[in-house]
Amino acid sequence: MSDDTLTLAGDFPAPTRDEWRTAVEKALKGAPFDKKMLTKTYEGITLQALYTLDDWKPENDPSGLPGFKPYTRGGQVAGQRVGGWDIRQLHTHPDPQAVNKAILTDLERGATSVTLRLDDAARGGDDADQAANYAGLNGLMAYTAADFDTALTGVYEDLAGVALESGAAFLPAAALLAGHWKTKSVDAATVKGAFNADPLNRLAATGDLPGGVEAGLKAMADLAAYTSRTFPHVTAVRVDTGPYHLAGATETQDLAIAMATAVAYLRAMTDAGLSIDDAARQITFQLPVGADQFMGIAKLRAARRLWGRVMEACGASDEAGRMRLTAATAERIVSQRDPWVNMLRTTVTTFAAAVGGAETNTVLPFDAMLGLPTEFARRVARNTQLILMEESNLDKVIDPAGGSWYVETLTEEVAAEAWTLFQDIEKHGGMAECLSNGHVLAKIEAAHTARARNIAKRKDPITGVSEFPNIHEKPVDIEKPDLDTLRRAAAARTKESRAGVSLPLDKLGSGAVTEAAIEAAATGATIGALSAALFAGGEEDTVTALPRRRLAAEFEELRDASDEFMVTTGARPKVFLANLGPIAAHTARATFAKNFFEAGGIEAVTNAGFDSPEACAEAWKQSGAPIAILCSSDAVYDDMAEQTAQALKAAGAKRVCLAGAPGEKKDAYTAAGIEGFVYLGCDALDTLRGALALMGVIDR
């Protein structure tokens, strides 16, 4: 056996980057290199087609090591090797008993913590009978500590943490949860949880903040002060950028907003007397992760780097500079139509979250945009994480993307751009001021406009919606709770226990208000009574609320209109595919046209093709479709398109379109009666809206 060392590729000369580029340009056959091989992201970052050592110099180890500054590679020295990441499940069912059953199922089958989102009434600071139209909508009807007793029966809260989403009523909701702990003798030294006060999130998402921003920040600081000295394993504050991301923010804008919001919260807490270290320890971050895998990984790595830099500038200790990071499925990527595809999307987001080093991950069930998630959908959400952790072993290697020339370069570029945007927010007065004066919204609108244009043109395809739609898909069965019954029961129990509450507002910021609120909650005070006392005398601050923009929404609105039309008339709106010539000639464009129109809920009536304009026009008459789409090859179009268009118009077609870009023949086609063209890169939304309006399906 030879002792010689085998050097793979040792006999081959190492090509240079210039040689590679020359070879690529030859393969492109004259097409511009930059146009074909470079990708410009919405963040303004140019992605190269190839990354090498020249793009990422490892000298001085710029990303550091896990658990050490700059924290790019993770905040914990052991990463997720010990116990994996926290699998957190979101619960939004209005009935506390139903939530309890679902929580126990989740925890028994792999989830390790839960988030309770309160309903619209509670998040606004009202009891069920005070805001009857909002009670039970979009969350849990929990108005008293006893409601939390019901929802959390059988949960070992020293093992499975409970997090809240409670909007403007973050301090009253925290008091109810803590009141539940108090009455159930849960040990404050071991209980796990997150109160998640986030007043600027509420202001941005809904456009209002009861009591105003100044009072909201003081209440947040009060909760943080009490939590810091009472609950060592509970955090008081969360920076959740979900509303900004849903409105259309880029990933770098999202990170900049996160940093600016966190700095605003740090200032409020330190002004109230907390040290910078204690204030930092009270903050967790929840960042949405989209379907762009590598951007998601880079975003989370950049987030830690940015926060470490903020903490360094504030003079915090190294330990305090470690970000507590939760990743969540970005709501904007989740579709209502063909919701099964969401399973694939959330697999990508989970992978990115794990590789990016999130300590906690919340995966939205695939049917989350349709209503209350089914038990099956929650199971799939849990098991997506469990498979990637326990079978794919994503928790076994710390920062597996570290050292990748592409990911390291992208992380640095994302961090640099986000830092510039963060500084811009600070220069314009900080996060609260930028919400008030519209600066943040204007930046988001500009980013959204570019993305919306590409979605409309299907340059950013949405599988199952704008591409490959299934017009005959069967709806998912979604539970519809009996809200009337639940509202009556909730109103009865809150009326019985509601009484006036007095809080020491002159001590707001010290923790005294939270302590008094917990005492009141433990003796039966409702979220409405606590909120009334907390907001007493304060004026509501208002701003322009951020819009909610799922990527698929505009196409899905057309599908909804088609469904309504079918219910009313018994048939879907439809177009006739005027396939010309043999199957080999028309199949490609006929398939394209079918996919194109069904993305708008318009059924495509197809056929085997026609050899004459007269035969095509006769078949169109039998179809009952008001619109005809010519489909064939360019060669067949040269022979038949104009004559067939004229025959169709003469037969009564309201509109004739052609599948394909017209090129230099546009004038001739238009003169023959062809009124529109469908092709790759055309404005699909505009064309579909025009067709549906012509058929009386929508107004335009």
From TrEMBL:
Show the GO MF annotations.
cobalamin binding; metal ion binding; methylmalonyl-CoA mutase activity
Q: Which GO terms describe its cellular component?
A: cytoplasm
InterPro entries on file = Cbl-dep_enz_cat (IPR016176), Cobalamin-bd_sf (IPR036724), Me-malonyl-CoA_mutase_sm_su_N (IPR024067), MeMalonylCoA_mutase_a/b_cat (IPR006099)
Show the Pfam families listed in the entry: MM_CoA_mutase
Q: Which CDD domains match?
A: MM_CoA_mutase_beta (cd03677)
Entries under SUPFAM superfamilies matching the protein = Cobalamin (vitamin B12)-binding domain, Cobalamin (vitamin B12)-dependent enzymes
Obligatory cofactor(s): adenosylcob(III)alamin
Name this polypeptide is given: Methylmalonyl-CoA mutase
Keywords from the UniProt entry: Cobalamin, Cobalt, Isomerase
One GO biological process from the UniProt record?
Answer: propionate metabolic process, methylmalonyl pathway
PANTHER family per the UniProt record, alphabetical: METHYLMALONYL-COA MUTASE, MITOCHONDRIAL (PTHR48101:SF4), METHYLMALONYL-COA MUTASE, MITOCHONDRIAL-RELATED (PTHR48101)
- Domain Methylmalonyl-CoA mutase alpha/beta chain catalytic positions: 40-534
- UniProt organism field: Caenispirillum salinarum AK4
The entry sums up its family as follows: Belongs to the methylmalonyl-CoA mutase family.
Keyword Membrane (UniProt): no
